[in-house]
Write a structure and sequence with these properties.
Keywords: Membrane, Transmembrane, Transmembrane helix. Pfam families: Ion_trans_2 (PF07885). This is Ion channel. InterPro entries: K_chnl_dom (IPR013099). The protein is mainly α. It has a single domain, classed as Helix Hairpins. The protein contains four helices and no strands. Helix 1 runs antiparallel to helix 2, helix 2 crosses helix 3 and helix 2 runs antiparallel to helix 4. The radius of gyration is 19 Å and the shape is elongated. The termini are far apart.
């Protein structure tokens, strides 16, 4: 168990770093774009901007799955990266299909990745909520705009 924790926690920290980078980039670019463009009162631009934020969040989550898959290959749990990545995606998204099961020696890594994934999806969701809330607030007329 201790070996699993000592092996998995550094990957969790790497995932936290990935998530922080992608959240920072996404929100910074969102704010810059919104400040420069007055076209955000058009629904298509709002959808495009939210889609971009979502895609960046998903890219960050995917890179985290790749990191876990790399760990699974590194410790010898899987011989090919594609199987490791599939298993990592199932763990990270907390699907738990059970069609591929890790060995008893490393199975706690799957639970660590699932805990990591649910937390990171929560961060991605909060980022999307922040962007959506801002768009709703930005699109609403201010009291001074009313007749």
């Amino acid at each position: 168990m201790l070996l699993n924790l000592l092996t998995g926690i550094p990957v969790m920290l790497i995932c936290l770093l990935f998530q922080a980078i992608f959240v920072g980039i996404s929100l910074r670019q969102y704010i810059r774009f919104r400040r420069r463009h007055e076209v955000l009162d058009k629904p298509l631009w709002q959808i495009a901007l939210l889609a971009l934020v979502m895609l960046l969040a998903m890219l960050g989550n995917f890179l985290q799955m790749v990191a876990w898959a790399g760990l699974f290959v590194l410790v010898g749990e899987f011989s090919d990266f594609s199987t490791a990545l599939y298993h990592s995606g199932v763990n990270f998204a907390t699907l738990g299909y059970g069609d591929i099961v890790m060995s008893e020696r490393w199975r706690l890594l799957g639970a660590l990745e699932a805990a990591n994934g649910i937390l990171m999806f929560g961060v991605s969701t909060s980022m999307m909520t922040a962007a959506l809330t801002d768009l709703i607030r930005h699109g609403r007329p201010s009291p001074s705009d009313e007749p």
